[in-house]
Design goal:
alpha+beta, Arc Repressor Mutant, subunit A, SH3 type barrels, 3 domains, seven-stranded mixed sheet, 17 strands, 37% helix, TrmB family transcriptional regulator, Tscrpt_reg_TrmB_N, Tscrpt_reg_TrmB_C, WH-like_DNA-bd_sf
């Protein structure tokens, strides 16, 4: 590498042109009086003292005050480390810029593939800030801690956040530092390893394989139907079968899935319980967002049972809840409802009462 190229490299490592020139002169000649540094380097005499002091503050040179100021190159160990770290930073920055350039614009495409799983997490972190209704995410403890601030902020503004964390031996100890008592956020522990997956507001899905996969990549999906398929996988494999990390939350309890709501309250309803709920979703006829509150009067699904909670198989086709608001009877369907009055996006269990004795 010639001197001019070396000087440019030093300038890229946070030195000014004068500092790079003065430092290389000292490396070439060893200890020199400040005036000689100016003569041999071309740094103006009026600038050389400030230049040497600045180099000293950065650890590149040592100065000695004798009858006049002298300077000599400092031990290069720290400098070499600095240069190598800068090189790694520039390399990583170049790779990241390449990834970002090649990332698909999901405004124009339904599905895109990226090279790194970390890119998927960054997309999720940014998109969670814009969610309105629900977040379903399955991830490792490290990934949860990376996204925790964004997930907590979403829960705080009323978004339902379901977090499925893959089991690790120190999970209980680590979770003690997490505030899991907040409303709208529930965490369950999945005992088998699985992929990173996030379904946001029923329209966007983000996927990355786990650490055992042979390749490191991610998939970005902007499609309602594909998101529904991933939502059903999440519900059946990563949510329903697994226990919560902390005990049941007090009511009002929010639900993302009408079918999960039915599993929880079906037996109570058939035992004579008065189940009060608030349902937020899309008015199917008007195609407008609507929120209604009322009492559950009927639950229907194929081969309905009245003495127990229905199985996932029984709920795998369709299910309908009838709600009495006091002014009207409304039918409530789940994701993709066509014939019901309301497509439920959020169901909040407000209270359960038996013969006038309430439980809220």
């Amino acid at each position: 590498m010639d001197r001019d190229t070396l000087k440019q490299a030093l300038e890229n490592a946070d030195l000014t042109a004068y500092e790079a020139e003065a430092y290389l002169t000292l490396v070439d000649y060893g200890r020199l009086p400040a005036v000689d540094v100016a003569k041999k380097s071309g740094v103006p005499t009026s600038q050389v003292y400030d230049t040497l002091r600045s180099l000293e503050s950065k650890g590149f040179v040592d100065t000695i005050d004798q009858d006049r100021l002298h300077a000599e190159p400092a031990d290069p160990v720290d400098i070499l480390t600095h240069l190598r770290e800068r090189g790694e930073l520039f390399t990583e920055a170049a790779e990241e810029l390449e990834d970002r350039w090649e990332q698909p614009d999901l405004k124009d495409h339904r599905v895109g593939v990226v090279k790194h799983a970390d890119t998927v997490l960054e997309h999720v972190r940014n998109r969670v800030r814009e969610t309105d209704v629900a977040v379903e995410v399955a991830l490792t403890a490290d990934q949860f801690e990376s996204l925790r601030t964004a997930l907590y902020s979403a829960a705080k503004r009323g978004v339902i956040v379901h977090v499925a964390i893959y089991y690790e031996s120190d999970l209980t100890e680590r979770s003690e530092a997490w505030d899991l008592s907040r409303t709208n956020l529930e965490v369950r522990v999945v005992k088998i390893p699985g992929p990173f997956i996030a379904v946001l507001d029923r329209s966007r899905t983000y996927f990355a394989p786990n650490s055992r996969a042979a390749e490191n990549y991610g998939i970005l999906i902007n499609d309602n139907i594909l998101s529904f398929i991933n939502h059903w996988y999440y519900q059946t494999c990563l949510w329903y079968p697994w226990p919560p990390l902390v005990g049941d939350q007090d009511r009002p309890k929010p639900y993302i899935s009408l079918k999960e709501f039915i599993r929880d309250i079906s037996a109570l309803h058939h035992d004579g319980g008065n189940v009060a709920v608030t349902v937020s979703g899309i008015d199917v006829a008007a195609d407008e967002f609507r929120t209604v509150t009322g009492t559950v009067t009927d639950i229907y699904y194929p081969d309905a049972v009245t003495d127990d909670s229905p199985s996932l198989e029984q709920l795998s086709t369709y299910a309908v809840v009838t709600l009495d608001t006091g002014d009207e009877q409304l039918t409530v369907g789940g994701w993709g409802a066509v014939f019901e009055d309301i497509e439920a996006q959020k169901i909040t269990l407000e209270a359960i009462s038996f013969d006038g004795v309430g439980q809220s």
